[in-house]
Amino acid sequence: MDRPQLAEFLRTRREALQPEDVGLSRGPRRRTPGLRREEVAQLAGMSTDYLNRLEQQRGPQPSVQMLAAIARALHLDLDERDHLFRLAGHPAPDRVGASDHISPGLLRIVDRLHDTPAQVITELGEVLLQTEPARALLGELTGREGMSRSTVHRWFTEPESRRIYPADDHEMRGRIFTAELRTAYARLGRDSAAGAIVADLLRVSPEFATVWAAHDVADKHPRSKRFAHDGVGEVTLECQTLLDTDTNQRLLVFTARPGTEDAEKLALLRVLGTQRMSV
């Protein structure tokens, strides 16, 4: 671990970012060049003291999970992320196959969607990043580990995960999630994470085995989605999808037609989400 170089790299990248670059307000009396340490710490989900120690060359060796969070908070590209890992004494993550690293361009888009339900997912349905309205609509989905990170795995192994959709849509959703998994399986191969999910679901879920045997294939969800929310009831939203061709990650953005009851429910959902965060 190269403490002096790591400290300097973190400081220079922090000072190179402006609040507007990460969706933060500048404020009237701002004198700090770039981002404050507490702002980066908040974005990375770490304590300000921990970041202070890293920049002062006296912190412990960061874990790979912490480095990934720092790379995301600082909007590092892949070369910068790899450099960060090496300075901290870890090998750079493998770039082959699925990656949890979100491109700076995609992060900038999400930063400007703070009042809209939006999330970044992998082709296996692993949620990497959510806006607060997305958490209010769909629940917190970024903190999971192992195969439960995958939407399709949760669908067939955790019945409570289906509550966000009306019961009438459950059969359709199961077919769609399975078809998307098959597309990923065909692209990534049997020895990939997609292959491991398929093998595990075939072992534990007869329902999945039946749907899998149908050999349905689909590249994307239907644009219109119905959700069942405890606070606002049933709401129908349009889902726009942006594909990052470098990472095969998708940005999903949920909107409602202006002037409709669904738009009113979405506005209420934002308020409910803010109140929940305050509590």
TrEMBL record:
CDD domains in the record: HTH_XRE
InterPro entries in UniProt: Cro/C1-type_HTH, Lambda_DNA-bd_dom_sf, MLTR_LBD
Record-linked PROSITE patterns: HTH_CROC1
Occurrences of domain HTH cro/C1-type (ranges): 34-81
SUPFAM superfamilies: lambda repressor-like DNA-binding domains (SSF47413)
Source organism superkingdom: Bacteria
Molecular function as annotated in GO: DNA binding
Protein name as annotated: Helix-turn-helix domain-containing protein
Species of origin: Microbacterium hatanonis
